[in-house]
Design a protein that fits this description.
- By secondary structure, the protein is an alpha/beta fold.
- It has eight helices and six strands, in the order βαβααββααβαβαα.
Length: 209
């Protein structure tokens, strides 16, 4: 599977980094914007080369000779995580001033999967209009909103929940806690406990006899 991972300059670059780590068995094409490189230095302890080493291929955001720049190059789709509002706005208006934006354009025109993990709050009317526009064009708009029903024990678990939802769009399902599974596990444990208790009671009756 070939997937493009774009990391832009919004807060939350860890989402893109974790995507690369979970996609280690896929062929990944990494593009990091210049602003994202600054955010990586501010928000994480990762070295840029360390992140790039997690990808199969790495391209500069101004490299329009990259294979992923063309619709004739086959790849499943792209995940932009995090997706800044500037990147969202350009994608929504068909502006491809960077390689990340061009990849998004390719995905939309070729009917390939495009997931935008947007990072901004609160949202202006312009932001919402841009989200609606790209959604109508075929993209999946996925604000970085982690769930809490899985009882996360760390910030990384919150991050991984969002990453897992992004990968769901590509048919890649991580082993993460999902809604309903906790109840099923609890019911299974209760059933097993009931069976064990019944077995113990049976042994006691046998001894009395």
């Amino acid at each position: 599977m070939r997937i493009v991972v774009g990391i832009t300059g919004a807060s939350g670059v860890i989402y893109g980094i974790r995507l690369l780590e979970f996609l280690k068995n896929a062929e990944t094409f990494l593009i990091i914007s210049e602003n994202a490189k600054q955010v990586i230095e501010i928000e994480t302890g990762y070295d840029l080369k360390e992140i790039e080493a997690k990808a199969t291929h790495v391209f500069a955001n101004d490299d329009f000779t990259a294979p992923v720049c063309s619709g004739s190059f086959l790849f499943e789709g792209a995940i932009i995580a995090p997706c800044s509002m500037k990147t969202l706005g350009n994608i929504a208006n068909g502006i491809s001033s960077t390689l990340i934006e061009r990849v998004a354009e390719v995905c939309l025109k070729e009917n390939r999967r495009l997931v935008l993990v947007t990072r901004e709050t609160p949202l202006s009317e312009i932001h919402l209009e841009n989200m609606l526009r790209v959604r109508r064009a075929g993209a999946v708009v996925m604000p970085a909103c982690p769930a809490f029903y899985n009882k996360p024990r760390s910030v990384l678990e919150l991050v991984d929940f969002v990453v897992a939802r992004a990968l769901d769009a590509f048919g890649i399902h991580l082993n993460t806690k999902r809604w309903g599974e906790q109840k099923e596990k609890q019911q299974e444990q209760e059933r097993k406990s009931g069976e064990d208790a019944w077995a113990q009671e049976g042994k006691k009756r046998s001894r009395r006899q």
